[in-house]
Specification:
This protein is of the alpha/beta class. It is about 20% helix and about 35% strand. It has 2 domains: about 1-125 and about 165-205 and about 220-225, Spore Coat Polysaccharide Biosynthesis Protein SpsA, Chain A; about 240-330, Hexapeptide repeat proteins (UDP N-Acetylglucosamine Acyltransferase, domain 1, 3 Solenoid), CATH 2.160.10.10. Strand 9 (about 140) and strand 10 (about 150-155) form a beta hairpin.
């Protein structure tokens, strides 16, 4: 089984961080979002992946080659940002078998066992999750047997609350790419984009049913507030704790937190829902619901709902802050 992972997006909802760091390499609970995805794919048995690259492609390629050297990685440049169908179309020359398509916008907990038990004649699987804010997503309308009838982008009426989360297994790969070609030969949608969901609709209309499957966990990391929510969820689980090499003196620690190696905390309060990455320093600070990058130095700051880049310096600041690596912020708190 192969995989296709689109990485070309600019991550505009996570600016300013994505001016310098690819969206998929931003960390939650001390680990890039892409690493959670790739670890799952490797465990599934995928050893060949087509990465569709664009924005900050060199950073993506260098990181993947360094951290996953055993993968057979192909990098294909998406020169024009023409949507999800346009991205997946570029992978066709490399795909000659079943494939997984995954958009690295979230941390997922998925039971891939449904793939092994998929009945004959089903063209693939679309994982989905029921949500309340259905207007933000493409939602799936299902048949009585759980297969997809249609996908509707950002509906104004509650026709379904089953959100398409960007994870797919495709058995009928030849029909998929036929559907992709059909989608990109049609009129584009808003912003001049062509949608992969139109290719799935083509498959269904051509008699290749797609089964919807539930997601055990789906934690969005596509914008600042949801990235912080995801960090909080993960540090409350197996990604939480205080590294033995960290120094915590005269400070209150309110779990859940993740305090990594060689972190120094003196005075103040840390937590809940905080990650302090390796080598960070926090002196006389109150920090909650935040991700603080490696080597950052914080003094006399009260931070909440914040993302602080690696090696940034923040002092005497009170409030929410979102700054990139090596930033310097001096407040008046």
């Amino acid at each position: 089984m192969k995989a296709v992972v689109p990485l070309a997006g600019k991550g505009t909802r996570l600016r300013p961080h994505t001016h310098h760091t690819p969206k998929a390499l931003l960390k939650v609970a001390g680990k890039p979002v892409l690493a959670y995805i790739l670890d799952d794919l490797v465990q599934l048995g995928v050893d060949e992946i087509v990465f569709i690259v664009g924005h900050l492609r060199e950073e993506c390629e260098e990181w993947i080659d360094a951290h996953y050297p055993d993968l057979r990685s192909h990098y294909v440049l998406q020169e024009v940002q023409d949507g999800t169908a346009g991205a997946v179309a570029l992978a066709e020359p490399y795909v000659d078998e079943d494939l997984v398509i995954v958009f690295p916008d979230a941390v997922l907990e998925v039971d891939y066992g449904v793939v092994a038990s998929l009945r004959e004649g089903v063209g693939g699987v679309i994982w989905a999750k029921e949500v309340e804010d259905y207007q933000r997503y493409g939602v799936i309308v299902t048949n009585d047997d759980g297969t997809m009838a249609r996908i509707v982008e950002k509906p104004s009426e509650p026709i379904s609350k089953l959100a398409n989360i960007g994870l797919y297994y495709i058995r009928d790969h030849e029909l998929l790419f036929e559907g992709v070609r059909h989608a990109i030969s049609s009129e584009p949608g808003p912003g001049g984009e062509f949608y992969l969901t139109d290719a799935f609709q083509y498959m269904v209309d051509e008699g290749s049913p797609l089964l919807t499957a539930p997601v055990e966990g789906w934690w969005d990391a596509g914008k600042v507030e949801t990235l912080l929510e995801t960090n909080g969820h993960l540090v409350a689980g197996q990604r939480g704790g205080v590294d033995p090499s960290a120094t915590v003196e005269n400070a209150e620690v309110v779990e859940p937190v993740r305090i990594e190696a060689d972190v120094t905390v003196r005075g103040g309060r840390i937590g809940p829902n905080v990650t302090l990455e390796a080598g960070a320093t926090a002196e006389r600070c109150e920090i909650e619901n935040a991700v603080v990058g490696a080597g950052a130095v914080l003094k006399d700051a009260r931070l909440r709902d914040s993302i602080i880049g690696a090696h940034a310096q923040v002092s005497s600041f009170d409030g929410a802050l979102s700054v990139t690596d090596h930033s310097i912020v001096v407040g008046s708190a």
